[in-house]
Design a protein that fits this description.
Length: about 450
Amino acid sequence: MSFSSRHQNEKSACCVAGWSSSLLAGTPQRRRDAGVVVQAAAKSWGTSATRGSSASVEDVKKCALITAIKTPYLKSGKIDLQKYGTRVSSYRRIVVVFLFPHFNTMRATARNCLDPRFLVGFFDLCLFVCSFVCFFFLYYSCSHPLVHNAADALVEQQIAGGVQGLVVGGTTGEGQLMSWDEHIMLIAHTSKIYGDDLLVVGNTGSNSTREAVHATSQGFAVGMDAALQINPYYGKTSRAGLMKHFDAVLDFGPTIVYNVPARTTQDIPSEVIFELAKHPNFAGVKECEGNERIRNYANKGVACWSGNDDEAHDAKWDAGAAGVISVTSNVSPKLMKELMLGQKPNPKLRDDLIPLMRWLFKEPNPIGVNTALTMLGCVEPVFRLPYAPYDENTRREGKKIIESIGTEHFVSGGFGGFGGGGGSSSSSSSSSGEKSGGGVRDVNNDEFILLDEW
């Protein structure tokens, strides 16, 4: 499975360096800086360091159930990838790659330090020594097996539930609250570990074409299978500008265009979609403007994924959609698989799930799914502002809905008491809740952590 794209000839020589330093140091970066650097360093990292996309446009079109995956956080607000199992040993290479390009410079600095004419040499020598101390510390500490993390546990429950793909760093995953360092790191992690099990779609779109191009090139370099590209939001553009914006990113690999006027305030006209569909890397469109729009596209051979969970069943079975990019599948991948991948329409299940879907979207996404996963014990009760959890009455309403459907149909985790431990590998008793790892927890208001800095 291969496709013609700009990254195809470069992917085996690409690796990630630069973003590892700011993440390990805990230094936040402004998103607009796009401070991610992808360098050709196959000799130092090896061709297996990045998975590299092996998906074609047709492979993307075959995925009927794609989860817009939630990004779990630690109580510090950092992405919960620190508890990373033995797999983290493969990321020792990141540290090697980050320092390797600077080795000759540091070696020259050390020689200069021996020359008394260089008064600044002493300080350079200190920097040189500190760099190598940090290198050895990070190299060996990263190889130490730790507890399974919430991010991996949630993804593994998606795989077990029959989900065929993931959107990483989308609105549901709060990509808009991440630095580009975090964003590309998360795509790299998901691709490296789970790329053989499902399709990895990186949300690398932006209202800045420069950022979209930069992030998309790096996303494919670290192994994502396809890109999700939104039209420029807030700072809207013309039809000609839309065409040039999308053309700039389509060259890198399989691409799903995302139309959600409720967020961008600008609809992508059907004429633009039909024009973009002529590009060999155009996979289809995630469409939020209703099933009549989807029917029109499907009748003319354009693959569509519904962006509305409550319309997804009818979009698939009546309007001809390829499937859905779903939020609800975060909490119940098995039922969404039954809804979208069954042998025939299932209007009863659709009707049973509608109350859950409406509850999840009672406030702007991802507030509902963040709250639900906290109640199910899958993630820590941590919110990056401006998102805040549902109020107590709404949480109580959600609990009744989940229990009426049956908790056995939902994901579960080990954060029942919010005392640590990870994902599906551990479970702890709840101090104030009903159950842990398999039930719905009553979460007190004072247990939620709202962060304005992370």
